[in-house]
Amino acid sequence: MANVTVIGGQWGDEGKGKIVDWLASRADLVVRFQGGHNAGHTLVVDGKTYKLSLLPSGIVRGTLSVIGNGVVLDPWALKAEVETLAGQGVSVGPETLRIADTCPLILPIHRDLDALREDASGKGKIGTTRRGIGPAYEDKVGRRAIRVCDLAHLGELGPQLDRLCAHHDALRAGFGEPPIDREALERELGGIADFVLQFAGPVWKTLNEARQRGRRILFEGAQGVLLDVDHGTYPFVTSSNTVAGTAAAGTGLGPGAAGFVLGIVKAYTTRVGSGPFPTELDDAIGQRLGERGREFGTVTGRKRRCGWFDAALVRQSCAVAGVTGIALTKLDVLDGLEEIRICTGYDVNGARFDHLPAHSADQAAATPIYETMPGWQDSTAGARSWAQLPAQAIKYIRRVEELIACPVALVSTSPEREDTILVRDPFAL
């Protein structure tokens, strides 16, 4: 059977939660392959809202959900999220959740370091969520991480703690902070170990067996392509690769497992935190987009910056991530506008670019080149077929397809799962 990989095609917050929930109802497994609990997915199921940060979106419907080795795991955040869902009537146990025993852990010292760095960075602030994601990935590649499997061997952590403390104590001293309290850290790990270990195992084996049996696997990416540490607007990016290819390395499946790559893209553009944003609107239209789109971060509650759709950026995202088709979300937010603009490229100090250049100075100097289209006055909210869309809305969608060189597979017209126009089924062979 076909697999599907869902990724964000912009700076995250594109409405992946609803689309993943819609697809998860037809999948056998839903898998997270990168990021941490800095990613937020909001699901609206039968009028009830669920806010997820770490758990795969399939968990709400009882679909087997897997956290792959490419994720950095905060065990205390995991416990809190499981308890919150339990309060909403969703039971999470080993039969519905599996966690790779090779996942690196996010520790309290990672959160501390994240905040200390941000506070000391002045104008160089990246705008992290201060949840320790970056420092945890640093320890992973620095070969000093404590992983899920280590929780079953807490009495043997000495050499790893030596490496960890040698690195972090020096950094903490530079910020005027005391050394790591090793005993306290070991107590905290001991207190959470049994909770995490009930879900732990070699998920690469689970996934390979599922693939051999022809089961449908839905890979769920966090953040968006423009936050990819290699392909995004560096340094204002996350600390992992967010492109579809990471589904292989982040789970233990081969590169052919990704299947249909569905890029989630808003009908306009938003981003949270610092960094370049050529089409950002600091006017009444930008305010209107934010209010109508309820643009506040799921994880942090931070207000999102809003602007016109940037076709040049999405075209770039589709290319580097190998997107097969896009899901266009929040089309209804554009209802009632007299005219709509689409960015097709940039003027950078008199030179024309059809992509966003790599250097931050060039990105800051990029002035969008716009194409203007008539808007529409009729509502698109809740539309479930092309016939229910205004003619100008259809023209807008078709023009987006042309400019990003990628077809539209789905159109979302509200947060409700069924308010979706299906153009091409991502799970179809």
TrEMBL record:
Transmembrane segments: none annotated. GO terms for cellular component: cytoplasm. It is found in: Cytoplasm. InterPro entries: Adenylosuccin_syn_GTP-bd (IPR018220), Adenylosuccin_syn_Lys_AS (IPR033128), Adenylosuccinate_synth_dom1 (IPR042109), Adenylosuccinate_synth_dom2 (IPR042110), Adenylosuccinate_synth_dom3 (IPR042111), Adenylosuccinate_synthetase (IPR001114), P-loop_NTPase (IPR027417). One of its GO terms (molecular function) is adenylosuccinate synthase activity. Belongs to the adenylosuccinate synthetase family. GTP binds at residues 12-18, 40-42, 304, 330-332, 412-414. Binds 1 Mg(2+) ion per subunit. This is Adenylosuccinate synthetase. The keyword Glycosyltransferase does not apply. Its EC number is 6.3.4.4. The active site is at 13 (proton acceptor), 41 (proton donor), 140. CDD domains: AdSS. SUPFAM superfamilies: P-loop containing nucleoside triphosphate hydrolases. Mg(2+) binds at residues 13, 40. GO terms for biological process: 'de novo' AMP biosynthetic process; IMP metabolic process. Signal peptide: none annotated. It comes from the Bacteria. Pathway: Purine metabolism; AMP biosynthesis via de novo pathway; AMP from IMP: step 1/2. Plays an important role in the de novo pathway of purine nucleotide biosynthesis. Catalyzes the first committed step in the biosynthesis of AMP from IMP. Its cofactor is Mg(2+).
